[in-house]
Amino acid sequence: MSTVTDNDLRELKDLINSKFEQVDRKFEQIDRKIEQVDRKIEQGNEKIDSKFEKVFEELTTIKVDIATLKEGQNGLGKRLDNLDIIARSVGGGILVALLIGLTKFLYPNLLG
């Protein structure tokens, strides 16, 4: 049987410590990479949030425009009703003028 000396124990301890240091370095590298990925994800989330805000603003603008169009459509119906009355009046006036002109053409002595 071989005997274990203090020197062998120190070498074993140093070997174990060096392996732990290597493992610690690897974990530090992994932690740095995870932090980089987290930063990139946060930046991506910020970009997505800003894009959602822009889309929300556009939707709000579109909703306001639609409401304005609906109001204009209601007013347009009233204006069309007014135009219908005016068109009928003008058409009637033209018809009366044509009848008077035809009467004057056919019977020049009738209307003075």
Protein described:
- 90% of the residues lie in helices and 0% in strands.
- With 112 residues, it is an all-alpha fold.
- It has one helix spanning 6-106.
- The model has no long low-confidence stretch (mean pLDDT 85).
Q: Care to give the gist of this entry?
A:
The chain is mostly helical. The chain has one helix and no strands.
Q: Mean of residue pLDDT?
A: 85
Overall SS class: mainly alpha
Gyration radius (Cα, Å) is: 47 Å
Question: DSSP strand (E) fraction?
Answer: under 5%
> In whole angstroms, how far apart are the ends?
154 Å
Would you identify the regions where 5 or more consecutive residues have pLDDT less than 50? Answer: none
Q: What kind of sheet is the major sheet?
A: none
DSSP helical segment count: 1
Shape: rod-shaped
List how many beta strands DSSP finds. Answer: 0
Helix content: over 70%
What's the order of the H and E elements? H
